[in-house]
Hints:
By secondary structure, the protein is of the alpha/beta class. It is 39% helix and 15% strand. The longest helix has 16 residues, at 124-139. The protein is globular, with a radius of gyration of 21 Å. Residues 14-173 form the Glycosyltransferase subfamily 4-like N-terminal domain.
Amino acid sequence: MKRLLIILQDLRGGGAEKMMVRLATALTDAGNDVTLLMLTDTGVNSACIDPRVKRVELHSARSSRAVPALARFLRQNRFDALLAALTHVNVVAIAAAMLSGTLARLHVSERNAFSHDKHVNPALAVRTAYLLAPLLYRLIPNPVICVSRGVAQDLVDTTITRAQDVTIADNPVLDNDFRDKAPGRPKHRWLSKKTTPVIVAVGRLARQKGFDVLIDAFARLADPRVRLIIFGEGALRTELLEQAVALGVADRFDLPGYTSDPLAEVAAADCFVLSSRFEGSPNALVEAMSTGTPVVSTHCPYGPQEILDNGAIAPLVAVDDPDALAQAITVELTLSRDANRQARIDAAARFVSACAAKTYLDALLGSQSS
């Protein structure tokens, strides 16, 4: 049994946090002693933590101020391997590992397209982290774990990071027995008592997710019966609602907020759409595919191209092109729901937790993992 530590800022509702909670469970299932450490506080994903996984909260006011506390914790508790997630957390973890003499056991991970993600948060501490990270990635002994080939290549192409400084590991998106599990019952009224075709999307209400383009595409659909639901929370809520009003589709559009069981909602829908401008490896797309529901995705950097086998599994359309998106959605709503269903499910199976756990253990422990 190996002692493993996963370092996060908190456990809010983001995809990276959700995947790290799932990874903690998968690594525990593989026979390891796993601890989740949050630099600040907990969050909504704490409800999903397996009771076997230990948790530690440093309660730092900001992640950037957590270096001394994290260094003390690392000196006082010996782990066989450490894994940090998200760029600003990686920088904090590297500094703390240097101070505590544990750098040889530290691994960091990039969860998104670095060249795009660095522009999202204007906070000085975050911008500084993005400036420092590539230099640190050249200096640390272990390669950066990236969630897709695209994320790894982007890091190499747009920073001083070298090819030997990166490696790849898939997200643990799905339960190992996902094929055998029936989806839960949807809670949204348009899905629980469905009378018309319904399109569903899931994600933060942020510019990255391209929901403004999706609403534009939705307004261009010829069938006036079709409805659109976007599950998620975020700063653009009011703006998206106003856009729906301006386009005359407000009565067929809903923003119900965060859902605790997105698979149940997506499984009942007629089409799932990923409209993102950039990603790392979109977990929502994989989850949607696992239900067999038809999907449409933008050809955004990075992830969808790899997941959908260059469009062989499901349509890929240009980013920021509402006409193309509307056309692809129309085609999917016209086809039989079972068209290419098994191909979608089979492609999603690559992202089961057991496969991810093995890949991460190999990356974290090398020969010690066997």
